[in-house]
Amino acid sequence: MREIVTIQVGQCGNQIGRSFWSRALHEHAANSHYADFGGGEGGEGRTGAVFSESMSTFFRNVDMTTKGEMAPGSEIRDLKARACLIDMEDGVLSETMRGPLKDLFTSAQVMSDVSGAGNNWAHGFYEYGNQYGDQFLELVRSQAEPCDSLQSFFLMHSLGGGTGSGLGTKLLEGCNIRNSSVLACGVFVRGKGIPISDVNSNVARLQSELRMPRWNREGFKIGLCEVPGLDHQSSIMSLCNSEIINSVFVPLSERFYKLYRRKANVHHYTQFCDGGIFDEAIGNLENLIEEYKAVGGRGEVEGRGGEIAAARGRAHLGRQRVFKQAEGVGVLDLGCGMYCVIYV
Q: Rounded CA gap, 208 and 195, in Å?
């Protein structure tokens, strides 16, 4: 088996998670196989849906009598999601645990507080991150231990707010996720009757048109699934790690300094962390911009060279100046290893 543990953090992450689990159940229900498992009264067979290998990636099949897990190929008894549900206010989690998906989760899979992080990144990262760090690792361990071959974690959270961005980033550290290769591309095709030769030929065309680093010319991952999705007979999804993300990071750096120079609301953050975290964060953002530029093999991202140079100059100036506490600052902390970008 190849299992994946899903971690949902904050209001956004848990709402996305609800949509994901609902769709996963519908897809598996639409493509379920049925078999005669026998053992019925009067010698009659008992026919039920089969717990397949593909279902075991995201679900556990639990025997309601013994509470033990059942292997793929058995009859579906009680499906449980391989998931951790985390939020620092219980509103969204309560909706999930009372809603149509309530049977997928147990209270042991939930970690919550009452007051929330108040859209404050520092509150989520430092206060709740330190307070709940050990509990989170224990929660993840409880979901990972039953897995035969754990492949990865899916982390669903927002980049804004307090719990999703702050606590979500802190929890990502605990998962010890390794940095993946940069500038790689995955192409995943679904649908019946799609020849792998057609997929390979089209990927070859993409490779000839895309600018790939010289050390990763073959940086493509191809997946082909014959089971169509619910809405389309055939579909394709691409996940890319590309230097084009600099077109997001550079304006982000510029907006940061516009706020930081006004020194607004800094005191809200320094209640929970040292003020030097701002300089560390913008320094890491600069380094990430430079890393993408270097790996991409270009001097600048096309069309944004001047903006990158200007941002670098302001960042250098910003680190040398002494900033006093004041009001209103937006922070993206990149000092925690959270460099995940998905293009669909």
A: 21
Please, what CATH class does the domain formed by 185-240 belong to? Answer: alpha beta
Domains 3-174 and 185-240 share a fold: no
Q: Are 189 and 224 in contact (CB under 8 A)?
A: yes
- What's the 3-state SS for 285-298? HHHHHHHHHHHHCC
Fold of 3-174: Rossmann fold (3.40.50)
Q: How far apart are CA 201 and CA 148, in angstroms?
A: 35
pTM beyond 0.85, yes or no: no
* Residue carrying structure tokens 């169509």: 228
Tokens 């033990």 — which residue? 68
Alpha helices (runs of H) in the chain, residue ranges in sequence order = 10-30, 91-98, 121-122, 129-144, 168-174, 196-209, 246-262, 266-270, 277-296, 305-320
DSSP 8-state class, residue 75:
B
Q: Which amino acid does the sequence have at 129?
A: G
Q: DSSP label at 186?
A: E
- How far, in Å, are 5, 18, 36, 101, 279 from residue 73 at the CA level? 21, 26, 11, 23, 54
Q: Strands 3-9, 264-265: parallel, antiparallel or unpaired by DSSP?
A: unpaired
Indicate left, alpha or beta for 340 from its phi (over 0: left) and psi (-120 to 50: alpha). Answer: beta
Q: Is 300 exposed, middle or buried (0-12, 13-18, 19+ CB in 10 A)?
A: middle
User: Domain segments of the chain: what residues?
Assistant: 3-174, 185-240, 244-328
For residue 123 the two structure tokens come to 């509150």
Across the beta sheet with 220-225, what order do the strands follow? 220-225, 185-191, 234-240
Angle at alpha carbon of residue 37, lines to 61 and 47, rounded to 5° = 90
Question: By C-alpha distance, which of 192, 266, 268 is closest to 232?
Answer: 192
Mean pLDDT by 10 residues, the chain (344 residues): 89 93 84 55 56 89 84 87 92 92 92 85 86 88 89 86 85 59 77 88 81 74 86 84 81 85 81 85 88 62 40 38 30 34 28
